[in-house]
Automatic annotation (TrEMBL), chain A:
The lineage of its organism: Bacteria, Pseudomonadati, Bacteroidota, Flavobacteriia, Flavobacteriales. GO terms for cellular component: plasma membrane. It comes from Croceitalea dokdonensis DOKDO 023. PANTHER family: CELL SHAPE-DETERMINING PROTEIN MREC. This is Cell shape-determining protein MreC. Keywords: Cell shape, Membrane, Transmembrane, Transmembrane helix. One of its GO terms (biological process) is regulation of cell shape. Residues 105-253 form the Rod shape-determining protein MreC beta-barrel core domain.
Automatic annotation (TrEMBL), chain B:
Keywords: Membrane, Transmembrane, Transmembrane helix. It comes from the Bacteria. The chain crosses the membrane at residues 12-45, 74-94, 115-136, 142-164. This is Rod shape-determining protein MreD.
């Protein structure tokens, strides 16, 4: 017994190291398999406020380019609005499926294998997990964790990310993944071989998930190859968004999402 | 006040965390290279201090940086590994002198100190990037990341060491 105690005391640093290492591994592996850690993320008050303060200062440097982007977007939206047929069926707001909320990115990252952004809107503004986040140009990611005033967003530049996407004007869906190699390029897989694919075609979100509305731009086809089993294409997609430079974002709330999820759950339970 | 080791190390802790999460995490050289300068905490930490204390401090240091950068517990794992292997590395770099009572950083040569710093950085980067990707299909990507990030970290840490060194004659 004495020898066991001595052994433990002699190697107490090693035991401490192993213990701490295991704790660290558990944190890491937990968030590999399921959602990002609930307790250790930058949407928390302290980190959120610090990033917010920093963003308040650094925002001034990009005001000009940000303004240009927003004016361009306004231009496009006005164009769409004025060219719409006057008798088009504008439904009343209560019938509309999607709500849009604006926010600002206060922390961006794209150099890791699992990238997250932090935005300055949280539960108080009605942000919940699994809402879609887009910029004025295209898709950005999905909300993962929220606190009162902040939220973290799982970027599409995240090896865990998987988003339903399709080639514009076709109805063939695939899923959008990222292989962590280049922050300007993502991969679209599972597009069947029979689909005519052209370099330069636009990739947009598909309507198969309740997170994003259909037809939000993602990028253009850079190269494509048949996969190993020769049955479907692996497509490299050039992103429309410059992921290194993102400020203003929009969060999309799908009013029917809960209903859809409930239905899906019922269907699965019934099986 | 400047001689109180607890105070010095606490302020070093806070300043390194702030530097890492506010500045160095967002440098993104060539798209993906972000120096991990908090390794300096282990370089500057007192030689004679208890290793268990260092390990617990390292755990806290890594965890804070992880929370800010949304990296699960990768920095934590890298930091505690550094803390655990630090005495072995010191013995390797500073030789038999390390075991003497009067050993101090000041009478080590520049080469010895740089070797020590380099070993710390390469270990930190290896732990971080291997655990980050955890898949061997990415082995070239991991090695590339380790190589470039190690070089960038080494460069920045050397600059910071020169900048903040106390014993200027």
């Amino acid at each position: 017994m004495q020898r066991i105690i001595n052994f433990i005391l002699d190697n107490r640093n090693t035991f401490l190291y192993v213990l701490l290492f295991v704790i660290g591994l558990v944190f890491t592996i937990q968030s590999h398999t399921y959602h990002h850690s609930k307790y250790f993320n930058s949407s928390k008050w302290l980190s959120g406020s610090l990033y917010d303060t920093k963003a308040d200062i650094t925002d001034y440097f990009s005001l000009k380019s940000e303004n240009k982007k927003l004016i361009k977007e306004n231009e496009r939206l006005k164009f769409l609005l004025y060219n719409q047929q006057s008798d088009s069926n504008f439904t009343s707001p209560s019938n509309m499926e999607f709500e849009v909320q604006s926010a600002k990115v206060i922390k961006n990252s794209f150099a890791l294998a699992r990238n997250y952004l932090t935005i300055n809107a949280g539960e108080k503004s009605g942000i919940k997990q699994d809402m879609g986040v887009i910029t004025s140009q295209g898709i950005l990611g999905v909300v993962e964790n929220t606190s009162n005033n902040f939220a973290t967003v799982q970027s599409i530049l995240n090896t865990k990310s998987s988003i339903n996407a399709k080639i514009k004007h076709t109805d063939y869906f695939g899923s959008l993944k990222w292989n962590a190699r280049d922050y300007r390029v993502v991969q679209l897989i599972d597009i069947p071989r029979s689909v005519p694919v052209m370099i330069g075609d636009t990739i947009v979100t598909g309507g198969m998930s309740s997170i994003f509305p259909e037809n939000i731009p993602i990028g253009t086809i850079k190269t494509y190859n048949l996969n190993q089993s020769q049955s479907s294409y692996d497509i490299e997609v050039d992103l429309i968004n410059d992921m290194a430079n993102i400020r203003a974002v929009y969060i999309i709330k799908n009013k029917n999402r809960e209903e859809i999820l409930e239905l899906e759950k019922l269907t699965i339970d019934a099986q | 006040m400047l001689n109180n080791p607890v105070l010095v190390n606490s302020s070093r802790f806070i300043l390194l965390v702030l530097a890492q999460v506010l500045v160095f995490n967002h440098l993104n050289f060539f798209g993906t290279i972000n120096p991990m300068v908090y390794v300096l905490f282990f370089f500057w930490y007192p030689v004679k201090e208890n290793n268990a204390t260092l390990m617990l401090t390292a755990f806290a240091l890594g965890l804070v940086i992880d929370i800010f950068s949304d990296t699960m517990a990768l920095h934590t794992l890298a930091a505690i590994t550094l803390a655990y292997f630090r005495p072995f590395m010191m013995r390797f770099c500073f030789g038999i002198n390390f075991d003497f009572q009067n050993f101090s950083f000041k009478n080590a040569t520049v080469v010895q100190r740089m070797t020590f710093l380099f070993l710390l950085i390469i270990l930190q980067n290896m732990v971080f990037f291997f655990l980050e990707i955890l898949s061997f299909s990415h082995i070239t990507l991991i090695l590339k990341q380790i190589l470039f990030t190690t070089l960038a970290t080494f460069l920045f840490c050397s600059l910071l060491i020169v900048l903040f060194s106390k014993n200027q004659e």
